[in-house]
Design brief:
With about 280 residues, this protein is α/β, with parallel strands linked by helices. It folds into two domains: about 80 residues, 2-Layer Sandwich (Nucleotidyltransferase, domain 5), CATH 3.30.420.40; about 160 residues, ATPase, nucleotide binding domain (Nucleotidyltransferase, domain 5), CATH 3.30.420. The chain has a five-stranded mixed beta sheet with strand order 3-2-1-4-5, sandwiched between helices. A five-stranded mixed beta sheet has the order 8-7-6-9-10, with helices on both faces.
Length: about 280
């Protein structure tokens, strides 16, 4: 049996590939070793995974956030080995998960557009290039956090249409001070900013919202996709909630920029499952 995990800060999607071809699945709360104790992951494994594993586990592929350091990789690997001591455990970052899910075994440019954003150049096996990921404060172009930050800035500075501001105020009835407290003093400010994306999507026909998202996508293409040499000859793929729900506009901006966009997924787990199924053949 092979176990695949796509782990984010909010949730983990599990897939169990049995030798007979059957596929099991499970879901549980997310895990990031930078912000949570390893016991949280062990609890997830014990409660969500162990009860549905009915055969020997040979390989585990854990794709997640916060696993770039050797220390965190060792912690995660040790947690799995407590429950599956005979398994070979491979720990990889979420960008490789996106590349494998989107591109499979073909070269291309893989992009993430969710709460945050990222991109890489992929040769069909490994990541061969990456525009520096600077996080939501400095970059994360076109991410939910980035779009939400721009929207909130205009709202608090009264730079958006009054009718739209009134509707937003009804949905998010916070004072200026409360907004600032959520961003500067509470946990996960980028996640909070990204919650505005649903409101923006619901008002995408408003010229202000359309232009905000269009310009954000333009920024992403210019600073990420178009920074890779030979991008015009490569297929560009996206995964993440922002890419998925705004797919029509994302494709429109790509067309305007001369970029070829192919696959757009909401989450990578289905693509990862296909990728590893092919390796089992």
């Amino acid at each position: 049996m092979i176990i695949i995990a796509d782990s984010g800060s909010s949730k983990i999607d599990w897939r169990l590939l049995s030798d007979d071809g059957s596929i099991g699945q499970a879901h549980c709360p997310g895990f990031n070793p930078y912000y949570q104790p390893i016991e949280d992951l062990k609890t997830n494994i014990r409660e969500a995974l162990v009860p549905i594993v009915k055969e020997q586990v040979d390989q585990i592929f854990f794709y997640g956030t916060g696993v770039s350091s050797q220390k965190n990789q060792d912690l995660v690997r040790a947690a799995f080995l407590e429950f599956f001591p005979k398994a070979k455990v491979e720990i990889e970052w979420d960008l490789l998960a996106a590349a494998r899910a989107l591109c499979g075994h073909e070269p291309g440019i893989a992009c993430i557009l969710g709460t945050g954003s990222n991109s890489c150049l992929y040769d069909g096996k490994t990541i061969t290039g990456q525009v520096a990921n600077l996080g939501w404060i400095l970059a994360d172009e076109a991410s939910g956090a980035n779009i939400g930050k721009k929207f909130l800035f205009d709202y608090l500075r009264k730079k958006m249409p009054a009718t739209l501001a009134e509707q937003f105020q009804k949905r998010f009835p916070f004072t200026r001070e409360e907004f600032l407290e959520k961003i500067y003093q509470q946990e996960k400010p980028s996640t909070f900013l990204a919650t505005f994306s649903k409101f923006i999507f619901q008002h995408l026909k408003e010229p202000y919202c359309y232009r905000l998202v269009y310009d954000s996508f333009s920024e992403f293409y210019e600073n990420n996709v178009m920074a890779y040499e030979g991008y015009k000859n490569l297929k560009v793929h996206f995964v993440g909630s922002i890419a998925f729900y705004y797919s029509d506009l994302l494709r429109q901006v790509a067309n305007d920029k001369g970029v070829t966009v192919k696959v757009i997924l909401e989450a990578p787990i289905s693509g990862l499952t296909l990728y590893h199924q092919e390796l089992m053949k």
